[in-house]
Amino acid sequence: MDRASVGIMAFLAVSAAAVTVAYAQKDAAQDSIEAYREALQDGNPAELYEASGEELWKTPAGPKAASLERCDLGLGPGVVKGAYAQLPRHFADTDRVQDLESRLLTCMQTLQGKDPKPYIEASFTAPPKEEMNALAAYISGQSKDAPIAVTLAHPKEQAMYELGKRMFNYQGGPYDFACATCHGQEGTRIRLQELPYIPSAKGAAAGWSSWPAYRVSAGQMWSMQWRLNDCFRQQRFPEPVYTSDATIALSMYMAATANGATMKTPGIKR
Question: Which residues take part in binding heme c 2 (predicted)?
Answer without folding.
Answer: 179, 182-183, 231
